[in-house]
Amino acid sequence: MSEKIVVTGGAGFIGSHIVEKLVGRGFEVSIFDNFSTGYIENIKSVKDRVKIVRGDIRCPEEVQKAVSGAKAVFHMAAFSYAEESIKKPEEYNRVNIDGTFNVLQACHKESVQRVIFPSTCLVYGANAASGKLEESLPLNTTNPYGLTKVTGENYCRVFTEVYGLETVCYRIFNAYGPRMQNRVISKFAALMFQDKPPIINGNGEQKRDFIFVSDIVDGLITGIDAKKSQCGKSYNIGTGKGLNLKKLIKLMNMHMGKNVDAIYKDRVKGETDLIIADTALARKELGFAAKIGFNEGIKITMDWLKEDYPKGPKF
Ligand SMILES: NC(=O)c1ccc[n+]([C@@H]2O[C@H](COP(=O)([O-])OP(=O)(O)OC[C@H]3O[C@@H](n4cnc5c(N)ncnc54)[C@H](O)[C@@H]3O)[C@@H](O)[C@H]2O)c1
Q1: Given pLDDT bands bounded at 50, 70 and 90, which one contains residue 310?
Q2: What is the extent of the structural domain holding 162?
Q3: Where are the alpha helices (DSSP H) in the chain?
Q4: Residues 138, 197 within the same domain
């Protein structure tokens, strides 16, 4: 009998790619999602081979029923936009903090062995002034979304230490790839497809660690076989390289067959120049290293956005 793995948020951007990978590896996969930001079309390639449970992580009973009998849970369901979280802190608190507590508690009650938790590079916040971000830095997040992930990581660690529920946390840097929505690359693309200029706050020299979705999946999947000594810990999932926004626009133009210039406006107060992962810990302890370069990743993403763009407002 194959082992059951539950993916909360499995109809979302990253979750759907995790689901496909797990199905490919022969796991019995169950998706638990309320489809608030996820889409059934994201999982069309596997929808006959997975169980789809419509449910909400804010409901402890629904979560407990869904995780019963699972070996592991990838807890991908969350709200994940920093700016939105400033306007809607209560909703972020309920979904990301209460929801994560419900998932951990349900897993503990149902004797699930392991929970994989996606955190974010935004937990570092104001630390991101210079150099690469290593896991040992203090977490100075500057928005409610980041705070919900700091709390999620802490809950994971405590459930590991106190209740023996094995958890592994991953601080994902700037995710991109097919099925992305509402992130810098897809927002820029939506304008550039119409020959409208993307707006950059600052001089465009700020560097971000854009990591392609298949690399993120490879990173998070290490959670299934991670050693017990790695549970209760957090690992950076980035490429370790920075791409500045000017170069990003250049690459996007190249793969879109466009020549659109950006408009430069005042930089956002408190925004940091470099948000780049130190990847040494993940490399050493999990054997993880990103494989997809920016050029290849942006090409695949632009091809997908080009095809998907006419279908609707998923940017
Ligand atoms: N995309 C990024 O750049 C990025 C970076 C760092 C971390 N993350 C984290 O990775 C995870 C996945 O992000 P994503 O970009 O795929 O987001 P997404 O919005 O595409 O996916 C989230 C999924 O969770 C579901 N969901 C939301 N609220 C729910 C609820 N209350 N109950 C059940 N399901 C619910 C949505 O319907 C959606 O399918 C999130 O935890 C996010 O915080 C993402």
Answers
A1: low
A2: 4-173+212-237
A3: 13-24, 60-67, 82-87, 89-92, 99-109, 144-163, 184-193, 213-225, 245-256, 280-286, 294-308
A4: no
